[in-house]
């Protein structure tokens, strides 16, 4: 049986686990210091633990489970990592450099069951959820990569926008967020973390009730049900009349700004009419809304879609702006290295299939 990753424990869980196994509670804090501040790779480097405690950790737990398969670096400094997990499944993690710091995009599931019609991750149904440790480990591997380059560089921001639907793996995603946010560990500020969902309305209510300051982004992509159902079949289960009240609840409860993601697909959802409908949909919450217009990253298998013309993007943006909706056009990172979610993984899996 595979040993459990030590990265999957919150600090309290690790303390409880140690006590259950006859160790002192205070060891948890020492171990976290080695894991997240000194960032060691092996238990035997934890020199202030006694032999009995080291033996226990070595016998029952592991530090690293991910194996780096591919690392692609883009001209703009974006780095895409492809990791192999212990069961052989591949996942992607992306490191991006911004003027405000380093941001990492993490994967939460192997594949995705939501199956949006434009997305490379949805091409394959979900194989399994990642556990919290596997999500934390993506951040740790990237941080260790930065450590090797320069001891001062830190992952300062996280976006949960890689492969998978985080709210379809809710508990592991929440544990991941608590672990990386904990001041005794990596201490990445909650306000610097954003979780993106395709719109699982029920879980948006749960997320609003969590006592955590993490940002929420909603992949909206269309301003009416007909169009949204056409491009995102999840809209059948959670149409706008169910989704928008969940968003209103979130806004009321948290008073935090929400980001609406809107991929612009040529001649599909990028007409002026849709921009006007979007204004109507958001006008009663515009003080807490930000619309992120995303240029589509073409996916080989979805050739019915292409990127909107520059003029269409600009017109769309203008209409939102003129009507008082905060918005921006996403600056792309790493387009030369398949950086859209799921693209590197799906290419690598095709290659592996060809080998068989
Ligand atoms: N499942 C979640 C989070 C992962 S997808 C969600 O859907 O929100 C993260 C974002 O990338 C979503 O807004 C998604 O719509 C977008 N995306 C997916 N495929 C894309 C592509 N080919 N080009 C641009 N954005 C894409
Ligand atoms: Fe899944 Fe998000 Fe891709 Fe939709 S866009 S298939 S929810 S990963």
TrEMBL record:
Domain Radical SAM core residue range list: 98-330
Enzyme Commission code(s) on record: 2.1.1.192
Record's subcellular location: Cytoplasm
UniProt: [4Fe-4S] cluster binding residues: 112, 116, 119
A Pfam family matched in the record: RlmN_N
InterPro entries from the UniProt entry: Aldolase_TIM (IPR013785), Elp3/MiaA/NifB-like_rSAM (IPR006638), Methyltransferase_A (IPR040072), RlmN_N (IPR048641), RNA_MTrfase_RlmN (IPR027492), rRNA_lsu_MTrfase_RlmN/Cfr (IPR004383), rSAM (IPR007197), rSAM_sf (IPR058240)
Top-level EC class: transferase
Gene Ontology BP annotations: rRNA base methylation; tRNA methylation
Keywords, alphabetical: 4Fe-4S, Cytoplasm, Disulfide bond, Iron, Iron-sulfur, Metal-binding, Methyltransferase, rRNA processing, S-adenosyl-L-methionine, Transferase, tRNA processing
GO terms, molecular function: 4 iron, 4 sulfur cluster binding; metal ion binding; rRNA (adenine(2503)-C2-)-methyltransferase activity; rRNA binding; tRNA (adenine(37)-C2)-methyltransferase activity; tRNA binding
Any single Gene Ontology cellular-component annotation: cytoplasm
Secretion signal span: none
Chief localisation class: cytoplasm
rRNA processing in keyword set: yes
Co-factor requirement: [4Fe-4S] cluster
Catalytic machinery residues: 92, 341
Positions annotated to bind S-adenosyl-L-methionine: 164-165, 196, 219-221, 297
Reaction catalysis annotation: adenosine(2503) in 23S rRNA + 2 reduced [2Fe-2S]-[ferredoxin] + 2 S-adenosyl-L-methionine = 2-methyladenosine(2503) in 23S rRNA + 5'-deoxyadenosine + L-methionine + 2 oxidized [2Fe-2S]-[ferredoxin] + S-adenosyl-L-homocysteine; adenosine(37) in tRNA + 2 reduced [2Fe-2S]-[ferredoxin] + 2 S-adenosyl-L-methionine = 2-methyladenosine(37) in tRNA + 5'-deoxyadenosine + L-methionine + 2 oxidized [2Fe-2S]-[ferredoxin] + S-adenosyl-L-homocysteine
The keyword Metal-binding is annotated on this UniProt entry: yes
Cofactor note: Binds 1 [4Fe-4S] cluster. The cluster is coordinated with 3 cysteines and an exchangeable S-adenosyl-L-methionine.
Function: Specifically methylates position 2 of adenine 2503 in 23S rRNA and position 2 of adenine 37 in tRNAs.
PANTHER family the record matches: 23S RRNA METHYLTRANSFERASE (PTHR30544), RADICAL SAM CORE DOMAIN-CONTAINING PROTEIN (PTHR30544:SF5)
Other comments on record: Reaction proceeds by a ping-pong mechanism involving intermediate methylation of a conserved cysteine residue.
UniProt family annotation: Belongs to the radical SAM superfamily. RlmN family.
Protein name: Probable dual-specificity RNA methyltransferase RlmN
Gene: rlmN
């Amino acid at each position: 049986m595979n040993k459990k990753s030590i990265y999957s424990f919150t600090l309290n869980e690790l303390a409880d686990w140690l006590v259950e196994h006859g160790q002192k509670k205070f060891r948890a804090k020492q171990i976290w210091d080695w894991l997240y501040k000194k960032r060691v790779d092996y238990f035997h480097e934890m020199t202030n633990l006694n032999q009995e405690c080291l033996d226990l950790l070595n016998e029952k737990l592991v530090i690293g489970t991910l194996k780096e398969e591919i690392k692609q670096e883009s001209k703009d400094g974006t780095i895409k990592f492809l990791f192999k997990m212990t069961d052989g499944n591949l996942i992607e993690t992306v490191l991006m450099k911004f003027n405000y710091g380093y941001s990492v995009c993490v994967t939460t599931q192997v594949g995705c069951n939501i199956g949006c019609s434009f997305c490379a991750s949805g091409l394959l149904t979900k194989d399994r959820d990642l556990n919290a440790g596997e999500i934390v480990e993506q951040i740790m591997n990237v941080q260790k990569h930065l450590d090797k380059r320069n001891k001062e560089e830190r992952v300062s921001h996280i976006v949960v926008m890689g492969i998978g639907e985080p709210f379809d793996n809710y508990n592991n995603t929440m544990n991941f967020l608590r672990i990386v946010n904990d001041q005794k560990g990596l201490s990445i500020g909650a306000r610097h973390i954003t979780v993106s969902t395709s719109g699982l309305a029920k879980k948006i209510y749960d997320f609003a009730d969590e006592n955590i300051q993490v940002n929420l982004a909603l992949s909206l992509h269309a301003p009416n049900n007909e169009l949204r159902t056409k491009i995102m079949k999840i809209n059948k289960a959670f149409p706008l009349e169910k989704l928008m009240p969940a968003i209103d609840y979130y806004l009321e409860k948290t008073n935090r700004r929400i980001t609406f993601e809107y991929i612009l697909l040529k001649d599909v959802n990028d007409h002026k009419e849709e921009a006007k409908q979007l204004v109507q949909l958001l006008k009663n919450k515009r003080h807490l809304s930000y619309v992120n217009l995303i240029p589509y990253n073409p996916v080989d298998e979805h050739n019915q879609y292409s990127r909107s013309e520059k003029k269409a993007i600009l017109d769309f943006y203008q209409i939102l702006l003129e009507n008082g909706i905060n918005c921006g056009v996403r600056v792309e990172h790493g387009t030369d290295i398949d950086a859209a979610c799921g693209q590197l993984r799906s290419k690598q899996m095709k290659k592996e299939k060809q080998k068989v």
